[in-house]
Amino acid sequence: MLIDSKSLMRRSGAVALAALLAAGPAALIAPPALAAAGPPSVADLSAQLIDAVVNISTSQTVTADNGDNGDDDDAPPQQPMPKLPPGAPFEDFFNQFFNKDGKAPPAQPHKAEALGSGFVIDSSGIIVTNNHVIDGADDIEVNFNDGSKLKAKLIGRDKKVDVAVLKVDPPKPLKAVKFADSDKVRVGDWAMAIGNPFGLSSTVTLGIISARNRDINSGPYDNYLQTDAAINKGNSGGPLFDMDGDVIGINTAIISPTGGSIGLGFSVPAATVQPVIEQLEKYGETRRGWLGVKIQGVTDDIAESLGMDHAEGALIAGVDDKGPAKPAGLEPGDVIVKFDGHDIKEMRDLPRIVADTPVDKQVEVVILRKGQSLTKTVTVARLDEGDTVIKASAEPAVPPKPKTAKALGLEMSGLTKDLRDQFKLGSDAKGVLITKVDDGSPAEDKQVKPGDLILEVGQQAVSSPDDVTRRLDDLKKTGTKQALLLLSNAQGELHFVALALN
User: Fold this and answer.
1) Active-site annotation holder among 162, 301, 320, 340
2) Superfamily of segment(s) 404-500
3) Are 169 and 125 in contact (CB under 8 A)?
């Protein structure tokens, strides 16, 4: 028996519609099944973890100068007590606020309180939080999810990664959590934050990892995980968990024009804080590794001038005479592409990796020097936090009648006493002085300024304007398109600039 195909389609459609109507209205609007519509309920997971997350309450004594000591000329004028006849209706009222001399009594010290979050990493009572949560506190109290409270002692803290380690003495073992390998976290992974936003204890929020390796210019070791899990004031110091219940980061900062969460929260990765926490527990302070170099990023034009296939690594702009890099043979112009087995993909990778390296450890450093890959061995030293400026120390030869030259939009001169005084250069300054930078030139665009000194051109030292022009001519003959200049400012700070030769 033959059946018309159109009739069959109409009949099949009618049967399907009847089935949908029988299933109820929900079936008509239900979307197609998705392979992964989101995580299952995190109720069981949060219940397992919530007792390990604590509220950190701090207080500090704040004094205020009411201007009554007579020593502060900038203090606001003291308001005298109004003159009232004896027995006036408001006499007793004003006597509460003024002494017998008719002056307000000195302002009394008062307590300022703050709230944050933290979490237990050892059942014996070791707790981690942000440094800024406890900074300046006279008294630190830890409030647990069961309502109990314990006084905490500060073991150690580190401002640069914003972490602090506390110790409490619990009557029984505490619920503790452990760190995960945050280097394995991927963008799009689910993440859960637990903390005390605005003092609302034991608040759970859920989101994803929105980005990795975020630099928000808060410190030298910025490497944040970004999440859209709601993080607000009071969440600082609390944990960011993965779906296995392990800590992948410490919630530290938000970007918000309103002060509330807009989905831009930042956590210090576990891989960054773990070495610091271990040092704080062991020594009460951090002991960071130090290489003794000043570095800058490798831009596309700098990479081209160095003959590199692509921009990568950290370019050494200066080497400290007292640092471990110098005896190891590292030089300005070298590009560090690997340190102790870690790839240095960009400049800001190096400080963090060096800092995490144990002091006195011998490590291999792979560099690119004039197109050749070399491996050097460096013994990592301990960072002196106050040592930041590298200064040149060689004594220059000062020609009595300096020659001048112009190239690449720069007017250059040898050094004289008058020019040293004019540009406030020290007696130890060396190189070729830039006296003028043409308006609108590429050099001006790259922040080259009069008073800068040219130390090298194309990784060869120069000491006169003629040296500069000869070196530029040599580079042009080889077909080089970018001239790499090593510059120093009046403070002795070094940096590289690549300028087009055409």
Assistant:
1) 162
2) PDZ domain (2.30.42.10)
3) yes
